[in-house]
Every structure is written in structure tokens, then in C-alpha cells.
Amino acid sequence: MKKILSFLNNHHVWQILINQVEKIKKTPLGRLVKQQIDKLKKIPIALTIISFSLLISILIIETKPETQAQPKIEKVWPVAVIAAESIDMQPKITIYGEVKASRMALIRSKLRGKIVSLNPAFKDGNFVESGAELLTIERARYEHQTAEKRADLFHSEAVLEELKKELVFEKKLKIVAKKQLDISKRNVDRISALVSQGRESKQLIDDTKSKHANREQDYLLKGQRVSKLKARIKQQEALYDKKASTLAIAETELSETVIQSPLDGFVSDVSLALGQLLERGETVGRVLSSKDLEVRFELPEADYGRFTKDSVSGSKQNKKEAKDLIGRILTINWNLGSEQLSFNAKLSRIGAEMNPETGGVEMFASLQRDASELGLRAGAFVEVVFPDFIYRNVYELPERAVTDENYIYVVRNQRLVRLPIEVVGRSNDNFLIRSKINSGELIVSRLFENISPGLRVKVL
Fold this sequence. Notes:
single chain; alpha+beta; conserved putative lor/sdh protein from methanococcus maripaludis s2 fold; Elongation Factor Tu (Ef-tu), domain 3; 4 domains; six-stranded antiparallel β-barrel; four-stranded antiparallel sheet; rod-shaped
């Protein structure tokens, strides 16, 4: 007990308690406690310790300092903002496509034979003009064939000419036979009259009728001959036409021994040599048109859907632009390392089907005529800049400034206000929106977790 009292006497807590006790002694409570202590002096030591501990507890509770509640400080959220500015914008849709030749000629051998001459320019990558001789197939066989067919035609023509002349003479002989028949008929009539008068014998009339019958037979034979000649002439004319067609085929085959370029363009897929035997229908190469180049690309399904939708239910301006989709001017960028070449192209046609794998719609744009002169070739990978609709009185905001429910937050009187918006289009990674926003109003450009209306904010 003495050790406890010595420790308390040297400790500052004890001094504080002494001071507090002195103050309490002067109060009614202090006087009451003093009276109780005086009574405790007559109580055994164990009970004294318990009472003393209880007294200390009461003193600690009574002397506990009163703490005042600190006022709650509202959190201020820092936000990045952009000033609202209404603009008119025509976004660009960037797509990638491939340059193709809109016209491509597949060069085939129509005959069987050996190559006897080969144009040195008929190699991959070379330019050839329309009508240029590319190669020649051995001609001897086809020349002999043509000469034979021509001789057959000349023979058929000579026979036909002979028959026509013979017909002319036979017609003249028929006329003579008709005159002789008429004379014989008149002679029979005259002799018959004399016989009836008894002035001539019946023998004479029989001889006269016999001659008349011979004349009539000769006339009929001449007519039959004329008819046969006419029929033979028709047959020979048909044979002549057949021989003429056969000769034309032979001459065509002879001309096809020389294979020519059907258009101006660049040669591709050639692998030939002198003396090589070509089969009928064998492919010897391709010629890609140098003037008719086009770009094939796929417009995403969502963008194509906007154009087709606006052509029916969009604004008047968008309806006109959607209907004028064919003929729209595009920009084609061809990147050559650090250099970029740009060309104009016109949307010429739209594919009949959608690509089931990518969901895109195939489109073709015709390049300007001088694109090949500037080095552009079929097979080049290019960037297609496709102009979108013109959006008027819209606001351009980054994607992270718009909630999934199509809301934005603006700063008004240092607090957040949530506003509904309408997303009308896109420009790269930004949304084009319309909303009831005042010009110059501050819009939160980057949303954060737990953002909500009414929060107090500080603009960065």
C-alpha cells in the first residue's frame, strides 16, 4: 500500500487528482465525500481499499473533460471539364480497302500449237497497249486449212455460176419450144378443118397430131429442166454459204494464231517460252486495265444502317445525302512509308450481299483516271475516307464523358447536374450529341466512380 501511495505521489496523475479533490472539497458533493471518508477511517483496511477504488472511479467520471463534436466537412471532388460549344460537323469514317482493276482480261489460247514468236514486253509488270501482239502460234497448219476452204468456196461459186447460166439458156429454149408448140397446135387445127371438108386424108391429120405431141413433150421437158436447175441453184447457194462460213471460221482461226492485248494495261501471271506447246483454252496471262482502277472496301453494318435508315426516316438533309450515296466523292490515301498520296474516287456501286463473316457491306469506288500514272497499282492496300452526314448544332464529347444511359454531367454553382442527351453520331472516338446545354457551360469530360448529381466539385 505504501508503494502504491509512493508511486501515485510521484506521478503527475496524482497531482491532478489532488487538485481536483481540493476543488471538489469546496462543493456540496466534496463535503459529502469528506464525511464518508471520515466514517471509512473506522472501517477495516480491506473495505477501505474497495471504498477508495470506488471513490477514485467516481472522481474520474465526474472530472472527465467534455469533448465537443467536430463540424462535418463536405468533400470537394476535382473534375476535368470542357466548355460546351455548338458546332456543325461532317465526320469522316475511316475504312481500309484494296485497289482492284475494274476491267481485267484473261488471255487464253484459242488454238493448239507451238509458240513461234513472243513479245519481249509480255512479262509480268510490263505495260502493253491495246492491240499489241503478245505472241504468235505456228500458222502453217491454219494457213493450209484456210487455203483449202477458200478453194472449196471458189469451186462452189463456179458451179453456182454455171447453173445460173444454164438456167438462162434453158429458159430461152423453153420459150422456143412454146412457140413451136403453138405453131404445131395451129397446124393441127388447120389440117383438121381440111380433113372435115374431105380435102385432106386422115393419115395427114394423124401425122400432124403426132408431131404436135412431140412438140408438147419437148415443151414439158424444157419446163422440167428449168425447175430442176432452179432447185439445184438453191442447193448450190446453200452449199456456197456453208463453204463461206467454213472459210470464215478458218480465217478466224488463222487470225487467232496471233494473240493481241484487248486493252491498255499491265501484264500479270505470265510464264511462257518460245517453242512451248499451247493447248486450246490454256491461260497464258492476264492484262489488268491501267485506266479503270477502283477501290473495294466494306462499310460497317452500323454505318450502312444509318444511311439506309436516314434515307427513309431521317431529316430532310440526311434523306437527300443518303439517297445520293452512289456518286459520293471519297478520299483515297495511299501510304508509302513516310509519304502519303491522296486520290479522289467516286462511289460507283454497292454489293448485292452483306458479308456474313464481317457484317460489312461491299462497296466499290472508281478512282480518278490518272491514278495509275501516279504509280498506283491493283493490289495496293489503301485508306478510304468516307464522308458522313453533316450534323448541325451538335456538341462533340469524348466517350468517357457520357454514361451508358446517355447522360452527361455539367457544373452549375460548383455542383453537378445530370442532363439527358441524344447521341446522333460519332467522330473517331468522340460522340456527337444534342442536349439542352447553355453555350459555354462546363461539361465533365471524364466520369469517375460514384459520380452523382449534387456533388460539390472543383474545376481543374
